[in-house]
Amino acid sequence: MKKRQGLLGRQSIEDKDNKRPLVIPGFHAVKESLLYGANRIHEIWIVEGKSGGRSDEVLRLAKEKGIRLFIKSRDDIERLAPGINHQGIVAFAEEFVYLDLANLLSRTWNVQGFRLLLATDHITDEGNLGALMRTAAFFSVQGLILPKDRSARVTGSLVKRTSGAYVSLPVAQVVNLRRALDVLRGKGFWIIGAAAEALKSIYDFDWRRHTVLVLGSENKGLSRSVRKGCDATVRIPGEGTVESLNVSVAGGIILAEINRQRQRENP
């Protein structure tokens, strides 16, 4: 397939077969990545004929940061971002790098007030994890902890679902989640799991402490091992006929309550 010359006249990442870049699709995700993670972006593709407000803004930001721009056919973009609503624009960044637990912890030392981390117990749906990451970034969660196996990963389609919020949420990947939670407890965190059958309401629990909020998988909730490793479990009280909430919705409700209590303490 014939390559189109880049707007800055350099070779496209399409020719570099030795690396697997992270594909960032969609205007909002690309814009957020340019604003807050541009050092990791190698180049941007825009479908031929795209122009107007959003396109011009992305082009301006890319030019300011010296990022290569390429005009491509829609088929070219579809080939590298199949099945993703890319809106005619994709950015290519370095492959996503997960932190280890120690590195993630080091980023929380200078946080003013109580620290807050989020851990997921084998959430496998990219849509749920992407929405949860965006919500966590909104509420200034300092980091996310994912199990290495049987968990959704940070991919291009997940990045699209976060609308670019992934750039402001450090993500650690651990081999054994229960062991990681034990380490965090030793560092002064309370390990609090969300469980529908818990006795204590999220509104009665005192969140004014260093906290790791643990959310279970879509189907099974918290695993037995992780549940045993929690200092307490809490539930979201409800009066309707639906027994449970989507995990990303539940996470948002709990994070909002944590934020409310902490803002009341330190307005």
Overview of the molecule:
By secondary structure, the chain is α/β, with parallel strands linked by helices. The chain has two domains: 13-93, 60s Ribosomal Protein L30, Chain: A, CATH 3.30.1330; 101-265, 3-Layer(aba) Sandwich (Alpha/beta knot), CATH 3.40.1280.10. Helix content is 34%, strand content 20%. The chain has helices spanning 27-37, 53-64, 74-80, 101-106, 126-138, 156-162, 177-186, 224-228, 247-265, and strands spanning 22-25, 41-47, 68-72, 89-93, 116-121, 143-147, 171-174, 190-194, 200-201, 211-216, 232-235. The strands form two sheets. Strands 7-6-5-10-8-11-9 form a seven-stranded parallel beta sheet. Helix 1 packs parallel to helix 2, helix 5 (126-138) crosses helix 6 (156-162) and helix 5 (126-138) runs parallel beside helix 9 (247-265). The N and C termini lie far apart (59 Å). The model is unreliable at 1-18 (pLDDT under 50).
List the helices and strands and how they pair.
Elements: E1 22-25, H1 27-37, E2 41-47, H2 53-64, E3 68-72, H3 74-80, E4 89-93, H4 101-106, E5 116-121, H5 126-138, E6 143-147, H6 156-162, E7 171-174, H7 177-186, E8 190-194, E9 200-201, E10 211-216, H8 224-228, E11 232-235, H9 247-265
Parallel strand pairs: 2-3, 5-6, 5-10, 6-7, 8-10, 8-11, 9-11
Antiparallel strand pairs: 1-4, 2-4
Helix pairs in contact: 1-2, 5-6, 5-9
Provide tags for this entry.
267 residues; alpha/beta; 7-stranded parallel sheet; 4-stranded mixed sheet; 9 helices; 11 strands; 34% helix; disordered N terminus
